[in-house]
Design brief:
- By secondary structure, this protein is mostly helical.
- Helices cover 84% and strands 0% of the residues.
- The chain contains 8 helices and no strands.
- 19% of the residues are buried.
């Protein structure tokens, strides 16, 4: 019965081990991620959102929620409203509505890049490595517990087999011992199953992290494509403005030199 108790304690430890292996610190991990995201935003606003970096920072701050993440929709709407309200533009985009849309798009791209940088940057890779290492250590500990339980169960069964004749002569107490052996075998099977399930969970975690990284690369590519489209549109507007200015200059020169009236 003592060995059966050891099996039961081993099974209980197997169930509770993942909770004590520091794999459940999800809020701490997420706060580290969101902190990296905010730092990226603060360090890159001036380079991409001039001359409205102050309005953009204010929009990001006001739209940041309890998880320290900015709401890109609310932030884009806020900075867009400021641009239209105060007629902020530049030398090429003199239409505040067009300027508002361009800044909104750039703000969304910046938030996307900040998420990518937070996941795939140095700190993000450290977080991923620690999580994977802790998972591997937990799986190794579970395997050791399962092996110890297996050895304890085998020793218990061997003892019963060696005393088979005594059990047969013991009557009801012998029957109780056989039932204990059967229960021990069932518990051992349960431990083996949970051991294999824990391996599957660990593999799923690794696969999920890889898929998340692939999605981050896809988001980055989409952000780059969006930026290229905006730059192409801006280039066409600049070319159109330059062509209009050239035609106006040519027309003015003709007017100044005089045109024959019909």
């Amino acid at each position: 019965m003592r060995k059966t108790l050891l099996l039961t304690l081993g099974l209980g430890l197997l169930v509770t081990l993942p909770a004590t292996a520091q794999l459940g610190q999800v809020l701490t991990d997420f706060q580290s991620y969101s902190g990296d995201l905010q730092r990226y935003l603060q360090n890159n606003l001036s380079g991409t959102l001039k001359p409205v970096e102050i309005q953009s920072q204010s929009a990001i701050t006001n739209s940041t929620g309890q998880l320290n993440l900015p709401n890109p929709i609310a932030a884009g709407e806020k900075v867009g409203d400021d641009i239209i309200l105060y007629s902020i533009s530049d030398r090429f985009d003199n239409n505040p509505v067009l300027k508002s849309e361009a800044v909104n798009n750039e703000l969304n791209r910046l938030i996307t890049r900040s998420s990518v940088a937070s996941n795939l940057g140095k700190n993000g890779q450290i977080r991923a490595k620690v999580k994977l290492k802790n998972t591997e250590d937990t799986l190794e500990n579970i395997a050791k517990i399962a092996q110890q339980a297996d050895e304890t169960n085998q020793t218990f069964i061997n003892d019963l087999q060696q005393k088979a004749s005594q059990i047969a002569a013991a009557g009801i107490p012998g029957l109780s011992a056989l039932l204990s052996a059967g229960q021990s075998n069932l518990q051992m099977q349960s431990i083996r199953i949970q051991n294999e399930q824990s391996k599957i969970v660990g593999e799923n975690l690794a696969q999920t992290m890889q898929v998340n990284h692939f999605l981050q690369y896809s988001n980055l590519n989409l952000a780059n494509i969006s930026q290229q489209m905006d730059e192409n549109n801006r280039s066409r507007r600049v070319d159109s403005a330059a062509e209009a200015a050239r035609l106006l200059r040519t027309t003015s020169q003709i007017d100044l030199s005089g045109r024959k009236e019909k």
